[in-house]
Amino acid sequence: MDVRSGCPINLSLEVFGDRWSLVILRDMIFGGRRHFRELLTGSIEGIASNILAARLRTLVDLGMLTRRDDPTHKQKVVYSLTEASIELVPVLAALGSWGSRWLPVTGELSVRAIALGDGGPAMWERFMAELREEHLGIPAGPPPGGKTVRQKLQDAYDAR
């Protein structure tokens, strides 16, 4: 990565300043998508396959994702979040909360962001623990109340 300055905001924008990187990470974090085809067809924003391939390569090169062969299918690969990506949960929660307050969002698509924002740091920490278990193999322990954070966010969506 070419560095224009040592400013942490500038450097972060160089990683996430394009239109698609955070959308891909959002779909992996909140949607549980881990394969190219899931990311290609599952996003309502309609990313082109060549752009998706390029962004996935970049995110792997930057250490935000890992890529490995899928043991269940010879022609597939599985993408996993790294710790650096998992630690974006509070950032995404803040972006979602801000966007829900200040931008012309739809109620349907903002309900999860609002629920995550309202859940606060305790929910974010639990979600990051669950993502670590899913992507890094670090046990999170049973979810409080029997439901994962992703399930709770889906329940909020379904209840709208």
From TrEMBL:
<keyword id="KW-0805">Transcription regulation</keyword>
<dbReference type="InterPro" id="IPR002577">
    <property type="entry name" value="HTH_HxlR"/>
</dbReference>
<feature type="domain" description="HTH hxlR-type">
    <location>
        <begin position="7"/>
        <end position="107"/>
    </location>
</feature>
<keyword id="KW-0238">DNA-binding</keyword>
<dbReference type="Pfam" id="PF01638">
    <property type="entry name" value="HxlR"/>
</dbReference>
<dbReference type="InterPro" id="IPR036388">
    <property type="entry name" value="WH-like_DNA-bd_sf"/>
</dbReference>
<keyword id="KW-0804">Transcription</keyword>
<dbReference type="InterPro" id="IPR036390">
    <property type="entry name" value="WH_DNA-bd_sf"/>
</dbReference>
<feature type="region of interest" description="Disordered">
    <location>
        <begin position="136"/>
        <end position="160"/>
    </location>
</feature>
<dbReference type="GO" id="GO:0003677">
    <property type="term" value="F:DNA binding"/>
</dbReference>
<protein>
    <submittedName>
        <fullName>Transcriptional regulator</fullName>
    </submittedName>
</protein>
